[in-house]
Amino acid sequence: MFARNVARAFTTPSSRLFSSSSARHTKVTVLGAGGGIGQPLSLLLKLDPLVSNLSLYDIRGAPGVAADVSHVDTHSEVNGYAMENLDAALEGTKVVVIPAGVPRKPGMTRDDLFNTNASIVRDLAAAVARVAPTAHILVISNPVNSTVPIVAATLEKAGVFDPTRVYGVTTLDVVRASRFLASVSGATPSECDVPVVGGHSGPTIVPLLSQVSKGKGLQGEAYDTLVHRIQFGGDEVVKAKDGAGSATLSMAYAGAKFANSLLRGLNGEKGVITPTFVKSPLFADRGIDFFSSPVELGVNGVEKIHPIGPLSAEEEKLLEACLPELKKNIEKGKAFVA
Ligand code: NAD
Ligand code: LMR
């Protein structure tokens, strides 16, 4: 009863997490389900009424997580798969969420994770290409600016890349921007829906505070401090966890929130728009072919990539700082697969 009430609470029209608009339900697979993000994300996906089957895979611990989560009294079926059963985990899945890979420790950049995570993500993407070639792939593993191009290039190599079905999950930046602006402005987070564009690391994270009423008046030190906090919110958590990893609970929330947006779009709900890092024409003329901007999600996935809209002078500078770094990260990912 409690779980049903929680799920119902999450699906009220004013909800910030889940909403359900129609009856088509979907199989979702989590790759890395035993980890710090994977476990709470699996729980939140179990509460999402649009998920019919939850398939949990990890190189260790997934059957245990699945047995645990499967007792929650919502309608979806849960199955856990051990290391040797990756193909079975992916069979017939519509949506694949990937939080597999190592997290940062204090003093590391996300790019420092590249050497370990690039091959993990590439190998998982190759399995998706083979077993579930039409699945939508949500990439959480860092460095997102490089792992998304790695997934795209791997699918391309397998002849199954469709740019409308590969997403870098940048929702945590949007969640942070909303929460942090609410803190300084005294408004509620729902009044602070800040578009965050670019990529997902330090200076590539570009919050567009001028586009929301609660943010447009901020100037000087207050503005600089808020932008810095949004860009480096991940470091705040890494430092506080003191060697035990990076954001897991807020990321699970953000991942479940993005997954629900996608599922609503796939179900035919109109007007589902949220920033995500996708193959994008917006800065192709600068040699950058992946970029996060508000994207409309629909029955085929990426329906429409919206432009970033008018920028303040400060935001123009942030964007100029973002683009070269982002280009480097994207090229590194592509080169890894080539
Ligand atoms: P974690 O170490 O707690 O969990 C990672 C899990 O991945 C482990 O259970 C591990 O066994 C599993 N794994 C490793 N190789 C695998 C493989 N080949 N197949 C399946 N599973 C595999 O780490 P975490 O805190 O959950 O973070 C995971 C990743 O998410 C990190 O790269 C982290 O930087 C990233 N992250 C991204 C965001 C974002 O905003 N996109 C936010 C937070 C963390
Ligand atoms: C975050 O933004 O919290 C994640 O990308 C994890 C990290 O390494 O900071």
UniProtKB/TrEMBL annotation:
Signal peptide annotation: none
Keyword set includes ATP-binding: no
Catalytic activity: (S)-malate + NAD(+) = oxaloacetate + NADH + H(+)
Key words, A-Z: NAD, Oxidoreductase, Tricarboxylic acid cycle
All copies of domain Lactate/malate dehydrogenase N-terminal, residue ranges: 26-168
Chain positions recorded as substrate binding sites: R104, R110, N142, R176
Record-annotated Lactate/malate dehydrogenase C-terminal domain positions: 170-337
CDD domains found in the cross-reference section: MDH_glyoxysomal_mitochondrial (cd01337)
A Pfam family annotated for this UniProt entry: Ldh_1_N
Database matches in InterPro entries: L-lactate/malate_DH, Lactate/malate_DH_C, Lactate/malate_DH_N, Lactate_DH/Glyco_Ohase_4_C, Malate_DH_AS, Malate_DH_type1, NAD(P)-bd_dom_sf
Protein name: Malate dehydrogenase
Organism: Lentinula aciculospora
Organismal lineage: Eukaryota, Fungi, Dikarya, Basidiomycota, Agaricomycotina
